[in-house]
Amino acid sequence: MSSLARRWPTWVILGLGFAFLYLPILVLMFYSFNENKLATVWSGFSLKWYGKLLQNDQMLGAAWISIKIAFWTATASVVLGTLAALVMTRMRRFPGKTLFGALITAPLVMPEVILGLSILMLFMSLGSLIGLAPRGVLSIWIAHVTFTLAFVTVVLSSRMAELDKSLEEAAMDLGANRVKVFFLITLPIIAPAIVSGWLLAFTLSLDDVVVASFVSGPSSTTLPMVIFSSARRGLNPQVNALATIMIVVVSAGAFVAWWLMYREDKRRQRDMQLAVQDNG
């Protein structure tokens, strides 16, 4: 029996898994070009829902709010997550280090309902003291940073734990301080993990409904909340059109990020091979 014949169950299971994950997305994109108002009844090819989407100020405004919140959430989470990962992997043991790591990763296992309710109560308690509105764009951003930080910290901590510390020690032996070592040695090596963490935090923030529902206000409704409310009244073809645009944009961004990381990895491997040849 050939190896291909022996592996066909594996390929079938793999194909069914990919179909389960991606076939609904392809169906959604297909029906975004449907002329019929009923999202599941095909009656002909049309781009009219894309045109009506451009006239839907509510949905476009919610999309812009979600994108802005997701961008700044991912950026803040990467900065704070990098600092937290450095503390957990590079600093020596200090009193409370275990508790610090547990508190950083606690949102990973905490239900979003509890997280959103607790953040809302915190904002309502501190609102009168520091002048922070308990519901609004700023409140959503702080709440999203709170739970996306845990995911970014785990990604970066795993990468830093695998990093060869001898490279950093060699740079410090040559006179570089810790700040210079981080920016010239550590940061370029962990750059792919930083990009991955940023994309993960951006996606989690853009996708969140539960936490945002607790801390959002009348003028800070996010796109998932608008889509959820629209889906409760029936499937809207404009949602399919917007989802198709977002899928195309996110896929293009992910491909560009992968290509840049792939090129950087190839360049690093080539430089290491040249260095080995020169030493030889």
TrEMBL record:
The keyword Transport applies. It is found in: Cell membrane. It holds the Pfam family BPD_transp_1. Keywords: Cell membrane, Membrane, Transmembrane, Transmembrane helix, Transport. Its main location: membrane. InterPro entries: Bact_Polyamine_Transport (IPR051789), MetI-like (IPR000515), MetI-like_sf (IPR035906). It comes from the Bacteria. The chain crosses the membrane at residues 12-33, 62-87, 99-126, 138-158, 179-201, 241-262. Gene3D superfamilies: MetI-like (1.10.3720.10). PROSITE patterns: ABC_TM1 (PS50928). It is a multi-pass membrane protein. Residues 63-257 form the ABC transmembrane type-1 domain. PANTHER family: PUTRESCINE TRANSPORT SYSTEM PERMEASE PROTEIN POTI. Belongs to the binding-protein-dependent transport system permease family. CysTW subfamily. This is ABC transporter permease subunit.
